[in-house]
Amino acid sequence: MSALDILDGCAAELARPAAESQRPVLRERGQREVFCGLTGIIWLHRKMQDAFFLVVGSRTCAHLLQSAAGVMIFAEPRFATAIMEERDLAGMVDAQDELDRVVNRLLERRPDIKTLFLVGSCPSEVIKLDLAKAAQRLGAVHMPRVRILNYSGSGIETTFTQGEDACLAALVPVMPPLSADAPAELLIVGSLPDIVEDQFLRLFADLGITRVGCLPARNARDLPAVGPNTRYLLAQPFLGETAMALEGRGAKRIEALFPFGVEGTSDWLRAAARAFDIDTALTEQVIAPGRERARIALSKLRPQLESKRISFLPDSQLEVPLARYLQDELGMELVEVGTPYLHRAHLARELESFGPAVRLSEGQHVERQLDRVRADRPDITVCGLGLANPLEMEGLTTKWAIELVFSPIHGFDQAADLAELFARPLRRRDLLEV
Amino acid sequence: MQLAVWTYEGPPHVGAMRVATAMEKLHYVLHAPQGDTYADLLFTMIERRGKRPPVTYTTFEARDLGKDTAQIFQDAAREAVSRFNPQAIIVGASCTAELIQDDPAGLAEAMNLPCPAIPLELPSYQRKENWGAAETFYQIVRHLADKNVVREPREGRKARANILGPTALGFRHRDDLVEIRKILGLLDVEINLVAPLGATPEDIANIGAADFNIVLYPEIADEAARWLERTFAQPCVRTIPIGVGATRSFIADVAELAGADPTPALGDTSSRMPWWSRSVDSTYLTSKRVFIFGDATHAVAAARIAREELGFEVCGLGCYAREFAREVRAEAARCGIEALITDDHLAVEDAIAAAAPELVLGTQMERHIAKRLGIPCAVISAPVHVQDFPARHSPQMGFEGANVIFDTWVHPLVMGLEEHLLTMFREDFEFSDEAGASHHAAHSPRKTAAVADALSEAPVADIPAPAMADEPATLWTAEAERELKKIPFFVRGKARRNTENFAAAEGRRQIDLETLYDAKAHYAR
After folding, report:
1. Element (H, E) at B163
2. What is the pLDDT, as a whole number, of residue B183?
3. In whole angstroms, what is the distance from residue B213 CA to residue B137 CA?
4. Calpha distance A365→A29 (Å, rounded)
5. What is the end-to-end Cα distance of chain A in Å, rounded?
6. Choosing among B125, B384, B386, which should be mutated to test the A contact, i.e. which has the most A CBs within 10 A?
7. Catalytic entry in B261, B281, B428, B453
8. What would the mean pLDDT of B172-179 be, rounded to a whole number?
9. ipTM score here?
10. Does residue B440 have a pLDDT over 80?
């Protein structure tokens, strides 16, 4: 976690609002009911169509990936696990040689791979298997056909969405340079469903911002350029390390709310427009139709969610911006907002709207947290797959957090879909008579 | 290092979880990093359990390494015992914790916990899930069985049996147990204990009180049963009652050990499978080629049912567990084929494609393979997905299990007269390959492009490219190609392959109508 601690320091120049710095945060240590960073591969391997993810790990890693995928994917996925065995650990074979063998076999079988990520896991980190070295060695052999990069998705270093952060951070050093005298470019950071990304790109085009790149790009070999004239906009709240790497290459962050709901999306687009000196009247004109559509769609869902009490258990780091949206735009009451990691700088503006009664927690001691849920009895609890059915059995309505990561929820045209994800379990609870 | 996309078995600590989750008042303290908690969802989502597995994960992080991971383990163990108040705990390490060598067994022993702490040594880099379950169950039995239990004399009381093997996340274990209880009831045998499913540590103490043991799932219970045989001189029933014949043998074996009359159990009137199989409608099942893959117990049982009770031809048989390869090889020899022992699903996919069966019986992995190859499939073994934990009673064991198996295996096939109609009137526009069999649920029509996409996404390994480059492709005449299209889609692949093999063997360069029908005659059954 040291990298993130450093980042907190780096970003300290962004003045923290007084209210936020005083807000108490319940920090907990104990059993965490969250996925490790490897899980990000489930969506990343679909987002980057020319990339393949090779986890160097144990049978547990392989089992996690197929279990977390829920249903196994019909086509052969673009990920696999190199399962370490006794021979690799006992020094009977050189693990680096074994890795070469596995990678060569894989690249032979899949000539369509253009970028290969070697992904570190808990066991590979503990035995200090140097994947950076392996990526360099193998890259020398396979470039230019295949670019080989590495990052760690291990549970001892990352939770769930931090895997995407580590993956994108690994891409930053290989982004082409944007020269210091080039015109300013906008960079959208964080993987979005293709349909949402296209909506945003259309809006930026309408605003007159034409030089727009996305990280990750749909083809990992078509990375956008980065340099001092890059202004980047985070689409996801879990990208601390990536942001730091971008800053390291001179890019500057556009501070904004995250694009959830009418207000979040408007703020996000307005911030970008301001950074590119777009006329305010034009900005309002461009965002007006989306705002109006979303407002109408949300007005139908608001009665179902208004004044309902909600608790978030830590899962994806999306908790804080989603809670802000549900409170401000749908009138829900926040009981506890738990997050695996609270990135104070990136979430500073999001936290401003939380009232003093909102319990903010970071990390997890799952038994104590469940005790609080049982005492609070919220109308809906957002939690991981391991906890949802047991809580339902206790009579508590739940929403699987993982669906929030796997559904298009950003932007104006998904604002109502996002609300519906929370409204449906409540409606179902009222509907069933069995 | 082994390259794997999907795995048949999880790591051994997941096997231990299956035992712990099946039992009551037992808790598992697992030394593991953050992220290993994913395993909970296997039970709460796939099996739809309403309770969390009784597992406390220590959840250490990188910053704890080399500092206080041992302390983290002890704190977690102490907290788990005071919160859950179990009658016993099992302690062990997952793959990462195994590497940091904190010795959970020694740490737990040093803590003077108010309940027994059973240490588990599950080598993650050598062993897998089923072995982990077997070892865990064996350790629990060995540590908790009261060796001073003396069996009362047999006179004047019912015979007593232990039923060993059912766990959480087992394929139809819940329903099999109902059938076994029914059989034992008809034989007037008393059940001393079912374990692990539903047993408490205190129940296990009394395991020696039974006259004999019934091993339902050798993958899980065999190790423990051998120890019980040695320690308490308890004989063991090892016949697996899957299929009508095997159920009859099972009843005979239990009756003999119990000194009971097998007649009432053998005369169970709900056994419909034999008549369903003999009824003339089932004639079309004769010599259907079936490929079987799964765990050893279910695969061997399926092969026997396929041959003896449905009249199928077993064209492929295998299992993913090397530990039980011997049994599978023996059964394969009876089928006149070579057994496939592998845990590489790509190798299984190749074998299925090469065998071109008319039905695949397998795990969820084979279900995906069969779907991709367009072959009907039924699931017979773990690992399975959420739809294979049905709400209704659907056992595999006993006479009712055989009824269920008949329905489940026959349903995916195109049935009797429809098969003939498809053959006779191939060119009827409604008999498109995409329509599927008429008794199957409606599905949205597949587009040709989508099918082509699916095919192009199939693993590259499927296509033996070098072989094709060596020899020039045999040429089908347009006329023969048209005739081939009149053959129903579910046997067309086999017909094409057979014809091509025949042409190659005969040295014919071209496949015309004549060759097609010569090949048909050559392969006639």
Report:
1. strand B160-164
2. 97
3. 14
4. 5
5. 47
6. B125
7. B281
8. 98
9. 0.92
10. no
pLDDT in tens, chain A (434 residues): 344 343 343 333 344 444 445 688 999 999 999 999 999 999 999 899 999 999 999 999 999 998 877 655 555 689 999 999 999 888 778 889 999 999 999 999 889 999 999 999 999 999 999 999 999 999 999 999 999 999 999 999 999 999 999 999 999 999 999 999 999 999 999 999 999 999 999 999 999 999 999 999 998 889 999 999 999 999 999 999 999 999 999 999 999 999 999 999 999 999 999 999 999 999 999 999 999 999 999 999 999 999 999 999 999 999 999 999 999 999 999 999 999 999 999 999 999 999 999 999 999 999 999 999 999 999 999 999 999 999 999 999 999 998 899 899 999 999 999 999 999 999 999 999 98
pLDDT of residue A187: 98
The gap between the terminal CA atoms of chain B, to the nearest Å, is: 45
pLDDT per residue over B212-238, tens digit each? 999 999 999 999 999 999 999 999 999
Which residues in chain B touch residue A2, judged by CB atoms under 8 angstroms apart?
A: 63
Contact B123, B101 (CB under 8 A): no
A181-185, B119-123, B487-491: least confidently modelled range: B487-491
Residue B476 and residue B498: Cα distance in Å, rounded? 13
Query: C-alpha distances in angstroms, A166 versus A8, A317, B147?
Result: 16, 14, 55
Task: Tell me if the bond preceding B464 is cis, omega within 30° of 0.
Answer: no
CB pair distance less than 8 Å for A62 and B461: no
Asked about B281 being catalytic, the answer comes back as yes
CA distance A379 to A430: 12
Q: Pinpoint the alpha helices (H) of B103-217.
A: 104-109, 129-144, 173-186, 201-205
Q: What's the DSSP call for residue A74?
A: S
Give the Cα separation of A39 and A33 in Å (integer): 13
Count of residues in chain B: 525
* Residue B125 in contact with partner chain A when CB distance is under 8 A: yes
| Amino acid at site A369 | Q
Both structure tokens of A217? 């790009």
* Measured distance CA(A29)–CA(A368) in Å, rounded: 10
Question: Cβ separation of A389 and B95 shorter than 8 Å?
Answer: no
Q: Report yes or no: A287 and A293 within 8 Å, Cβ to Cβ.
A: no
* Of A88, A172, A165, residue with least CA distance to A123: A88
Chosen for mutation from B72, B96, B455, B463 (greatest number of chain A CBs closer than 10 Å) is: B96
d(CA B470, CA A118): 35
Please give the structure tokens belonging to residue B182: 């029914």
Strand pairing category for B2-4 and A79-83: antiparallel
**How many angstroms separate the CA of residue A34 from the nearest CA in chain B?**
6
Read off the tokens for B512: 């015309």
Helix, strand and coil content of chain B, in percent to the nearest 5, comes to 50, 15, 35
Task: Answer whether A384 touches B (CB < 8 Å).
Answer: yes
Token output for B464: 């033996």
**Residues of B whose CB is below 8 A from A76:** 5, 457-459
Paired tokens of A290:
């989306």
CB of A122 within 8 Å of a chain B CB? The answer is yes
Q: Is B507 left (phi over 0), alpha (psi -120 to 50) or beta?
A: left
List the structure tokens of A25. Answer: 């945060």
A317: DSSP letter = S
- On whether the CB atoms of residues B135 and B120 are closer than 8 A, the answer is yes
Query: What b-and-e string marks burial along A262-290, b requiring 16 or more CB atoms within 10 Å of the CB?
Result: bbbbbbbbbbbbebbebeeeebeebbeeb
| Interface residue B42 vs chain A (CB under 8 A) | yes
The set of residues, in sequence order, having a beta carbon less than 8 Å from that of B96 and lying 6+ positions away, is A58, A60, A122, A123, A126, A155, A156, B32, B33, B36
Q: How confident is the model at residue B519, as a pLDDT?
A: 86
